[in-house]
Design brief:
331 residues; alpha+beta; Nuclear Transport Factor 2, Chain: A; Glucose Permease (Domain IIA); nine-stranded mixed beta sheet; 7 helices; 21% helix; rod-shaped
């Protein structure tokens, strides 16, 4: 029996088995690239899915495998109610109930500045427009560049772009104009901005209040306003009544938020129904005062900011009093 070297060769593979990939390595490269792109696009979706999160819970398969023989590590729950974009350029949070503080406490992933801005906008809308959020609210933040540097995440901040307050009667939707910077939150024809003070009368004459020079009240900044059109006195800003005029304490005290208080004295008649805790706006009447161009009756106004009494005329943006007319001190 004659044996040749051909008898020891392995059998030749068919040309239909693994030949296309062997001859064309580009196909393998494209296949690997497609797999990598699919993993990259679906990574955040898979990681944030309920099935994957259940595997990471204490006692789950992943935790039992990686923590075998190690002491248990305390886990921190991820913020609930937040929906992040894949590139973290936007985030939307939804609170389904009236527990505003509990929702904001869970949204610590937004950062203290963003949460503080959202909290201030909600309470400012309630104080200025009486827009409640008994049915919850939805807030959308956009990541904007700080100092025009989008490539550096440390120089970008989350800006409140839209806020929907679901109240008992209606839903109030506020949004910012993306073309303006800075831009206030606006709803249709009104904007939610910082409180802007205004005088207590539409037409008035500011005069000095007459105090004995040796009294403590003479050292407190104060301004008096005489109405020239018989109009009713209005608060300088929206707020809540803290104290009503009473015998021996004739000042009406109103809190406007941001540690700002205003005081009023000299009413001939206080508006009926006004009491401690009542909310008042800039169009609401506080009371009536004796009016007239030659009258010495007037409304005394004081303003307190951050625990200090400030000049009311300067705070209202009015020039100082130049004449010597004095309004008598009403008690």
């Amino acid at each position: 029996m004659k044996i040749s070297h051909r008898d020891f060769r392995p059998p030749r593979r068919s040309k239909y088995v693994a030949q296309p990939l062997k001859r064309r390595p580009t196909l393998r490269i494209l296949l690997l690239a497609a797999i990598g792109m699919a993993v990259y696009l679906k990574f955040d979706t898979v990681v944030s899915s309920r099935a994957f999160q259940s595997l990471r819970k204490p006692g789950g398969p992943f935790a039992a495998f990686f923590q075998k023989g190690k002491p248990p590590v305390e886990t921190v729950a991820a913020p609930t109610g937040l929906r992040w974009a894949l590139d973290s350029s936007a985030v939307e949070g939804e609170c389904t109930g009236p527990q505003i503080d509990s929702c904001l406490d869970r949204w610590n992933g937004l950062g203290s500045d963003a949460v503080g801005t959202l909290r201030a906008a909600i309470y400012k809308a309630k104080a200025q427009w009486e827009a409640d959020a008994t049915g919850g609210f939805t807030a959308r933040f956009l990541r904007v560049a700080k100092e025009a540097d989008l490539l550096n995440p440390n120089r970008s901040v989350l800006e409140l772009a839209r806020l929907d307050l679901r109240g008992a009667k209606a839903t109030v939707s506020l949004s910012r104009d993306p073309g303006k910077n800075p831009s206030p939150l606006c709803a249709q024809d009104r904007c939610l901005d910082a409180l802007h003070p205004q005088p207590p009368f539409a037409r008035y004459k500011p005069v000095r209040s007459a105090h004995p020079d040796n009294t403590a009240e003479a050292r407190i900044p104060e301004a008096a306003f005489i109405s020239l059109d018989g109009g009713a006195a209005k608060p300088i800003m929206p707020g809540r009544v803290m104290e009503m005029p009473a015998p021996g304490e004739a000042w009406m005290k109103i809190y406007h938020g941001e540690n700002i208080f205003s005081y009023y004295r000299g009413f001939a008649q206080v508006r009926p129904g006004l009491k401690n805790g009542s909310r008042v706006g800039t169009d609401d009447t506080l009371g009536l005062v004796a009016a007239g161009g030659d009258s010495l009756e007037g409304l005394q106004v004081r303003i307190e900011k951050d625990g200090l009494m400030v000049d009311p005329l300067a705070y209202l943006g009015l020039p100082p009093i130049m004449d010597t007319v004095a309004v008598r001190h009403v008690r």
